[in-house]
């Protein structure tokens, strides 16, 4: 059983108020996001599903994956979705010196032109976060995570995690990776159908770079 909470506790959000955990909205809008791609045989299926429901999403891509699969990176952008930086090779901020961490993100930025950043594992130090914000990045976290990558979580539970916890303004995390694909590809279309039937819209995250 995963120890990761499906819904981020309010206390955690208050501890890191400069990070974006959700996007308050008066309209029925949900922000679906994908981490770790692009991945052939997975990301392309995700894009097909999103197109079926006229949904836009944000893809926090790993730099080396974006370089390996430029056709998927191009398709993400051409179909109206947004790219975010997820480091060059999925490193853990807690285990990496700040200088090296920032350098890794800079390397990814050569192929991922975005001011949106999500730390792999959701883990970065306060110093790393402060430096990234000073450099103009918006740190995008989440308030609902599907746990799609967790092998102890069934595809039905993955679906329930998202449907039961998501509200308007939620930032929801899926993964367009091989590891998560079974659960994610089961849950994603059902999530989109469920909330579409309730009158929700699915938008990509677009936040302007803040001058500091």
UniProtKB/TrEMBL annotation:
Q: What is its EC number?
A: 3.-.-.-
Claim: Hydrolase is one of the keywords in the record: yes
Q: Extract one GO molecular function annotation from the record.
A: hydrolase activity
Domain NodB homology, which positions? 28-203
Name the enzyme's class. hydrolase
Q: Which UniProt keywords apply?
A: Hydrolase, Metal-binding
User: What name does UniProt use for this protein?
Assistant: Polysaccharide deacetylase family protein
């Amino acid at each position: 059983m995963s120890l990761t909470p499906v819904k981020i506790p309010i206390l955690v959000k208050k501890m890191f108020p400069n990070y974006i955990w959700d996007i308050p909205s008066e309209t029925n809008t949900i922000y679906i996001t994908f981490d770790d791609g692009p991945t052939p045989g997975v990301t392309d299926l995700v894009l097909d599903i999103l197109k079926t429901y006229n949904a836009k999403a944000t893809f926090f891509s790993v730099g080396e994956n974006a370089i390996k699969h430029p056709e998927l990176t191009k398709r993400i952008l051409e179909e109206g979705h947004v790219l975010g930086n997820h480091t060059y090779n999925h490193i853990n901020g807690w285990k990496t010196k700040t200088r090296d961490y920032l350098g890794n993100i800079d390397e990814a930025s050569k192929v991922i032109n975005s001011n949106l950043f999500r730390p792999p594992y959701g883990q970065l130090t306060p110093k790393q976060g402060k430096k990234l914000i000073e450099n103009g990045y918006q740190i995008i976290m989440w308030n609902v995570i599907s746990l799609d990558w967790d092998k102890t979580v069934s595809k039905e539970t993955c679906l329930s995690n998202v449907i039961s916890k998501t509200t308007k303004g939620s930032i929801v995390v899926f993964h367009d990776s091989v590891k998560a694909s079974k659960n994610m590809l089961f849950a994603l279309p059902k999530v989109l159908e469920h909330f579409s039937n309730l009158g929700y819209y699915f938008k990509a995250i677009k936040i302007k770079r803040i001058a500091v």
